[in-house]
Amino acid sequence: MAKAEPILYLSNRDLEQLGLSLGEIVPILEAMFRRKASGDTAQPPKIFFHRGGPRFYSSMVSSAPGLGYAGCKWQSGDPENPGRGLAYIQGLFILSEDATGQPVAIMDSKWVTGNRTAAASAVAAKHLARRDARTIAILGCGLQGRKNLEALKAVLPSLVRCQAYDVVAEREAAFVRETHERWGVVVVGAGSAERAVRGADIVITAGPIEDHRRATLMPEWLAPGTLTIALDYDSYVTDAAIAAADLVLTDDRGQIEDARQREGKFTGVTRIDAELADLLTTGQGRRTTEDQRILVFNLGIALEDLATGVEILNRARRKKVGILLPA
């Protein structure tokens, strides 16, 4: 009879010690998207529900038999948490050996979510941004604003300017102070969403996922050739801006449809031209002219957590990082 193995626990501090960079996560996610396209994965719709205003809980599960693992993430999000000294996103990711179902690792989901989300943006930007992209707009100056700036600079070294905006002026100012020229990018505070977006080659919307939309991003703000990546569902992109996009992509069609049916979201999305998995394997949804306006809804999928978690586990075992819990 096989003996149950100890479970490796990895805290946020442990994960930081591993030195897994955003630039290294990008090809890991690309490989997982290709695996998704091949059918060697399982990923039920995520469970996602709000608990009054922008507070939410979510559960996300997936498996990749060819990779040898399955995973489950349970987490919550509350934009009021930073004011309490807590992270906006909190939770745990459980990794199981697929052959036996045995749990082998438990790790901080905040680190996993923060880094894989930004790396997924970088995957989209790497393959869809204009070749001469120089300016990025960041709407939402929290963790994802910082992570996305770092991740996109890793895959698009041509970026030299960031126009940042946050509804909380102090948060916008702190973002400018902390990131200005940190990755070789000049960062300026825009003072409004419109001023941030106008003139940008890439737009990242990274606000809280709202129960009731506060859509403000207008199509006339977006210059020809702009790539917009929405990380906050359709919370801030108006239906007019969605309709004006020449191409609309997502990380998972099924998740868009599930959110439409269960939560009333994405009512303005009348077509999806491709998934990122299609883009990477067949070229479907690729940019064909420099003036195409492209919109990507990166909702964040469980397979991204799984791919990142497997790499974390392998590194932690090699470096002997973490605490072993009894099986």
Description of the molecule:
The protein is of the alpha/beta class and 327 residues long. The protein has 2 domains: 7-112 and 303-325, ornithine cyclodeaminase, domain 1, CATH 3.30.1780.10; 130-300, NAD(P)-binding Rossmann-like Domain (Rossmann fold, 3-Layer(aba) Sandwich), CATH 3.40.50.720. 35% of the residues lie in helices and 23% in strands. The protein has 10 helices and 15 strands. It has helices at residues 12-17, 22-38, 109-128, 143-155, 169-179, 193-197, 239-244, 253-263, 276-282, 302-319; strands spanning 7-10, 47-50, 56-64, 69-77, 89-97, 103-108, 135-139, 161-165, 186-189, 202-205, 227-230, 247-250, 274-275, 294-297, 323-325. The strands form 2 sheets. An 8-stranded parallel beta sheet has the order 9-8-7-10-11-14-12-13. Strands 2-3-4-5-6-1-15 form a 7-stranded mixed beta sheet. The chain is globular. The chain starts with 6 loop residues before the first strand and ends with a strand.
What can be said about this structure in brief?
With 327 residues, the protein is of the alpha/beta class.
Q: Count of DSSP helices?
A: 10
How many structural units, i.e. domains?
2
Instruction: Please name the fourth-level CATH homologous superfamily of the largest domain.
Output: NAD(P)-binding Rossmann-like Domain
What radius of gyration results from the CA coordinates? 19 Å
CATH topology of the largest domain: Rossmann fold
**CATH level-two architecture of the largest domain:** 3-Layer(aba) Sandwich
Q: Any idea what the shape is?
A: globular
